[in-house]
Amino acid sequence: MRAAKGPASLKTLSVVIPVFNEERGLDALFGKLKPVLDATGMSWDVTFVDDGSKDASCQVMRRLNASDNRIKAVFLSRNFGKEIAVAAGLSYATGDAVVIMDADLQHPPETIPLFLAKWRDGFDIVYGQRDDRASDSPFRRLFSRGFYKTFESMSGTSLPDGAGDFRLLDRKAVDAMNSFSERSRFNKGLYAWIGFSSTGVDYHVPPRFDGGTSRWRPRQLWHFALDGIVSFSTVPLRIWSYMGLLVSMGAFGYLLVFLTRTIIFGNEVPGFPSLLVSVMFFGGIQLISLGVIGEYMGRIYDEVKGRPLFIVADEVGIAAQGQAGKQAPRLPTSAA
Ligand code: UDP
Ligand code: MG
User: Fold this and answer.
1) From ligand 2's centre to the CA of 35, what distance in Å?
2) Does residue 126 form part of some domain?
């Protein structure tokens, strides 16, 4: 049930921004973000999560923190990937509402007041919906479309069209996200999984501020897609029992045909090609099914090791707020 959130001025707003090699954009981002946040009339803070940047991003963040103590930064010890960086940011965010956005200005700050309006109407999750994917390469668009179709049909979890990480989460939803310890993270699926009342707000995606390219490497995107499906569906595992059944039934049918033919026409020696084809076919099927099991087993192994989700190398601006920032566990699984 939705309930209005009361006077906004008494509530606090945190913004979480994962950063990976964005030295050129951070000043421009904060320049645009600050007036928007000031205009909300809420008390706010911004938490940058440095995901192991190799450029001068860290220095820029430290400088920003020195100029405005509402800016905090958490430096992860290496590149853990965006999903984990967002998870780290969420565990530090203290606001009653938390906005997650990219550092490259592809998520326009002007959308934040629209998020807040919906939040005040009582929605716990407000996601940004991109109105088109023109800023992505055609290959990536095709890949995304294929992925979402597959994901939805296999997991039974439907994801709102064009919704990404740009969104506002109410404290309740943030706490729910912080309770997950899984490493093969697919945040978009988790946002849908935790439930709560949600709604969307349209926004337009400008090209990356620096005209640069996405920080995602194709290999990362592929693993991300696999994580998404494997962590939300066991269909790929179960499918092989049916495949096995189907193939054995086929083999049995072939046996009958072969027997009848031998009885009627006598024994024929030829048949070498069909033998080869079937051996290769079954070999292939077995390797694929082993591979699928491997995908799940690898992830089980990862989870069972119980390693922390991320390692923090340093933080600035965090200690100043005392224990408040420690409500949520920093290393959700270190106790395991
Ligand atoms: N990012 C990150 N770790 C990574 C890759 C990206 O924290 O390993 C950050 C990046 O700095 C940006 C956001 O995640 O703030 C989205 O990245 P990008 O713009 O490259 O992704 P796209 O817009 O193509 O989805
Ligand atoms: Mg981007």
Assistant:
1) 22
2) yes
